[in-house]
Amino acid sequence: xxxxxxxxxxxxxxxxxxxxxxxxxxxxxxxxxxxxxxxxxxxxxxxxxxxxxxxxxxxxxxxxxxxxxxxxxxxxxxxxxxxxxxxxxxxxxxxxxxxxxxxxxxxxxxxxxxxxxxxxxxxxxxxxxxxxxxxxxxxxxxxxxxxxxxxxxxxxxxxxxxxxxxxxxxxxxxxxxxxxxxxxxxxxxxxxxxxx
Length: 196
Hints:
It is built from nine helices and four strands, in the order ββααββααααααα. The protein is an alpha+beta fold. The chain has a four-stranded antiparallel sheet, covered by helices on one side. Helix 1 runs antiparallel to helix 4. The N terminus is likely disordered.
């Protein structure tokens, strides 16, 4: 396991946040503007509904580095947390979001935080840095897989499962000419993994 604990261990020492393999964490805590917690809650509901929008999923696939994200209102509606896990550099992560439909959604949600300058403002990175806190411990279930690798693995698995379901594949397994290949340990392992 390569989880970062104790002293900060990050792939990008110029930015806060911990890394585990190719994955980095990003956690921001802000103060909610007085009287805006309900409006933020409504915008988070809207954001949750919008997350199912094909344009948002297309933007996330285009960015291709976000593993997950969550938003939390806490401390009696006075504070807000945004936390995510991503691949690559912190600066690229922020820049990529600013250039997609996701940036407008960030603006809407973070507009309820005190002092937020806007995602396209030149000072937004400084604002995020001022509000970011690195995790005490950060562990990824798949530290060596980027989002792009996970997408590819999913596509390959779908394609392989489609092949397994064909009559032609079953016939090839039963064909005596393929007996040596079918008996090979690597092929048997592949079949075992596919059926797990």
